[in-house]
Amino acid sequence: MFKSKSRFIAFICNIIISALCVTSIGSYFVLPFWKVEASYRIDKATLRSLLEDTLQNAEDDGTKIEISEADLNELGEPIIPLSISLKTTDVLSSLSGNAEETVNQILNVNVDSAVNGVMPELQKITKSVVKITSKSTIKETVKETVKDAILNKEGEKSDEELNNRVTEVLDSAGVTDEYIIDKTDELVDLIYSANATVDNVAEKAAQTVDEVFNKLKNSEDDVLQDLNFSEEDKEELKDTMKDVLSNIANEDGTIDVNQFISGTLSSLLKGNGENNEGNRAETGVILTNSSISAGNDSADQAKTEDSTEELKAALREKIEEMIPENAVEQICNILKYVSYVLLFTFFTWGYLILKILVKLTAKNNAIKLGLPIWLGWLPYLVLCLIPNGVIALLKNPPAFVANTLGADTMATLAKTFSSLTIQFSSGAWISFVVAIAFLLFALFFYRPLRKKLKKIAKGELAEVKSLDEINAEIAAATKTDEEESKTEA
Predict the structure, then answer these.
(1) Rounded mean pLDDT of the chain?
(2) Is the distance from CB of 32 to CB of 427 less than 8 angstroms?
(3) CB-CB neighbours of 234 under 10 Å
(4) Disulfide check for 24: which of 180, 206, 392, 431 has CB 3.0–4.6 Å away?
């Protein structure tokens, strides 16, 4: 079949070209057609403000929740992720004509991704809220108890004198911040354990308060000698704790953080947040806005999954409410235009394979690679290169852009992008890389080969053997002549 060595080389090249063309098309179906990954870092100032707003309900009983620098350092700076992706099959399905089904399919996938990405950070933040609230509540409750004891024993004092005396008494009793943190951690660890129930958490809370009172009572300062945490007080605390815990517990009394968080967010999305207030303030707020982890058994896991699915459904419903009626058709029309561009892109790669098949038996079986080199990577240009370039430009604008936008706008951008990260990606990056490879391949090897085959096909050039082949033939002929000379001799 291959009388010409150049045709055989072109045939091998064509096999590689075809494989790369198939890869370029296939990558759109294996990888996301378009993916936008965003993450927002909550700095300490913003986090403090959010936590203070979240915990403001705890002040209804007179207890002030204080958020220290140590609390913020423990929590760090949470990063909230958000990912939005679009599959090639979703884009092409817009051509089927069912706009609502297409949009709903895209919506479902991205809602699932959003909830699954955000939940771990929500759990982390909520656990920190539990610790902060518990520590502040215990600390403030102890302080108020000591203040009452001091006023009863020593009479009226100024605020400054009273605060200094409280600090003195607590230090002498060994009820320091470190001690309170240790007791709080014990309670929180139980809440987040696999076997957390309403009963054992309530018992632990009463035990914790009892231990603190005993430590105060055993102080050398006689102002605390009359302190007493009776069995009646203990039972009352347990009952209060059980009432509050029952709002976030399962029917069997176990406590599930994921179910609580998902249920709370679902209620907020549905506009039922007011139903979750209840007796939160009167608990000593040990569990204000708390999250409690699930047990390991399959029943608890199933309940958690159900609550997560309920949250996803609520989020979908909320998004659907925000989308105008005619927006669905508009979105689908946009996807149709994108589909046409995508199909044309596939054509630019498939066209090379078609030409290779047509020219399979031709004397000049090499083809031009220009179409995909120029047009086969346009989706990557529009979906990734341009938006990523714009983001990079906004993050670090050159002088002329900064002067055009103005100082106020630049300050706003700087603040935004100090916390916000956005990255655009697409499976089209493979076709972009292949297009560059084709360009280099064509310039330095394939194009000269094609021109040579073209001249051979026209009879303008005979097939020329390579220098190595010529040298090998000369060497073989010389060897044969020497052997014949020896034979004659």
Answers:
(1) 78
(2) yes
(3) 17
(4) 431
CA-based angle 382:386:389, to the nearest 5? 160
Residue type, position 1, single letter: M
Sign of CA dihedral 14, 16, 20, 22: positive
pLDDT above 50: residue 9: yes
Give the mean pLDDT of 457-484.
Answer: 63
Q: In three state form, how does the secondary structure of 71-101 look?
A: HHHHHCCCEEEEEEEECHHHHHHHHHCCHHH
Distances (CA, A) of 252 to 242, 248, 267, 294, 488: 13, 12, 22, 13, 110
Pairing of strands 420-425, 79-86: unpaired
- Secondary structure, 3-state, 454-483: HHHHHCCCCCCCCHHHHHHHHHHHHHHHHH
List, in order, residues 6 or more apart from 184 with CB less than 8 Å away: 131, 134, 135, 138
Contact, 129 vs 290, CB < 8 A?
yes
Q: Cα separation of 286 and 440, whole Å?
A: 67
Q: Which residue type, as a one-letter code, is found at position 294?
A: A
Polymer length of the chain = 489
Helix, coil or strand: residue 464: coil
Tokens 């309403």 correspond to 198
Q: Specify the 3-state DSSP secondary structure of 3.
A: coil
Q: Which of 142, 148, 146, 188 is nearest to 169 (CA)?
A: 146
Asked whether 290 and 280 are in contact (CB, 8 A), the reply is: no
pLDDT digit string, tens, across residues 22-69: 999 999 999 999 999 998 888 888 877 777 766 655 444 444 566 777
How far apart CA 296 and CA 247 sit, in angstroms, is 21
Q: How confident is the model at residue 298 (pLDDT cuts 50, 70, 90)?
A: very low
Token readout for 135 is 């520590």
DSSP-based helix, strand, coil % in the chain, nearest 5: 75, 5, 20
